[in-house]
Amino acid sequence: MPDGLFIFFAALTLGAALLLVLSRNAVTSAMGMILALVGVAADFFLLDAYFLGVLQVLVYAGAVMVLFLFIIMLLDTEDPTGAYPWKTAALGLATFFLLAAGVLWLFHWSGAVAAVKAGATPPELSTNPAEFTTAAKSFGRLLYTKYLLPLEIAGFLLLVALVGVVSLSKDNPESNA
Amino acid sequence: MENTSLAHHLILAGLLFVLGLTGVLLRRNLLVVYMCLELMLAAATLALVAFSRFNRTMDGAVLVFFVITVAAAEVAVGLALIVALFRKRGTVQSDALTSLRD
User: Which residue of B has its CA nearest to A126?
Assistant: First the structure.
């Protein structure tokens, strides 16, 4: 039987994700998404990845979802009227359960992860910064040595995205962009 | 934290991914489809962190750092595209956007 906190946050995450997929109101979907992302961040905390958990809440549940909510309210997408599409929802849930059965089989019964299963709990945390530690220092060490080029590319990507968004959202009628 | 094996976290990540995939297939509102895509990314990062933790290596966690960066950039550009689309066509329902089909 897994840890109680894990069960709680897993249920929270899956329930919120279900709300995201099934709700017809886009704002309700966004709220479900925020809750699901916070649940994922909580699972990061349970896995001792504190830095990533904080980053997830700050960047995803904070900045990205605020952007989403802004756009949803800016576009003011009207709620679809008429009966709830039960047929589509049932089809979707059937798809989900089929794929979920596949996931359970793959990770639980197929024995594919049995080799790692020998340690039913995560290994002891080490203090060696070359291994998995809770310190942000071990992130920095890898980011500026082994992953220096990807870091530079990620920074450049952010710059390109910034310029792209500005040019996309600029409203110039003569170029008809 | 006592009794969670790698399989538990992988199952959670897998279910989350499948839920996001179902949403992408099912929904018509482009904004919700986009949120479901983000959900699939989050599920993938969850699996990465779990593998990273159980294999005592930092590389997966660093990869998650890059995934979050790329996702933030991607959301900004994607939402700008959706806004541009809405300006031109006045809708974000994917079944109303069929001008390439007919």
Answer: B56
Total domains in the fold of chain A: 2
From A77, A111, A138, give the residue that closes a domain. A77
Residue A168: give the domain boundaries.
129-177
CA distance B12 to chain A (A): 7
Q: Exposure pattern of B55-80 as b/e (b: 16+ CB <10 Å)?
A: bbebebbbbbbbbbbbbbbbbbebbb
Encode pLDDT of A83-133 as tens digits. Answer: 777 888 888 888 888 888 888 888 877 776 754 554 566 777 777 766 777
Q: How far is CA A149 from CA A119, A132, A154, in A?
A: 35, 21, 9
List C-alpha distances in Å: B39 to A55, A76, A86, B12, B68.
16, 22, 23, 12, 12
pTM recorded for the entire structure: 0.87
